Amino acid sequence: MARNPERRTALLDAAIQVLADEGARGLTFRAVDARAGAPTGTSSNYFRDRDQVLSEAADRIFVRLTPAPDVIDAALLPAPSRALVVELMRQLAQRLAAERACYLGLFELRLEAVRRPELRTQLTKVLRTDLDENIRLHLASGMPGDADSVRLLYFALTGLLFDHFTVPGLHGDRDLDDLIETVVTRIVPEL
């Protein structure tokens, strides 16, 4: 297997873009090579099979979506409040919009995981780690609500953002920021 880490990352980023644009069924070594602008056969030098590409793409998505620790620290500087939770959820939506391919690629991976038990195991681990870290941060920072509040925000915002990215007209003229505020206000209690 080839060992150029920058090339490997570029191939994974290309795989994520293929997932977002063409779906999991369109993810082939040839499609990844073409999207990365690499010679045909390059991906097969870095990944033993398609399952490895899917699994490593899941990991790469979370690397791209996870803010740097200093960004998290700065976001949590203001006093804990429901208004801060609203602002943090809006920032999350902005980050996901900036990484739209990652978010759509993640949904493609979720659908593919239904048919691939190994991918399901990997994706469950990655998603659980992310959710657990969000719960830990929420509770440690003194934000209003409990672990179930974070879970409910996760469920609601996952669906809201999925709608926003896939069928943006579904909610009519409702602004995404306003919808986020409504979700948070209904789930997170006042301090």
TrEMBL record:
It comes from the Bacteria. This is TetR family transcriptional regulator. InterPro entries: Homeodomain-like_sf, HTH_TetR, TetR_C_31. Residues 5-65 form the HTH tetR-type domain. Keywords: DNA-binding. It holds the Pfam family TetR_N. PROSITE patterns: HTH_TETR_2 (PS50977). Residues 28-47 bind DNA. It comes from Streptomyces zaomyceticus.
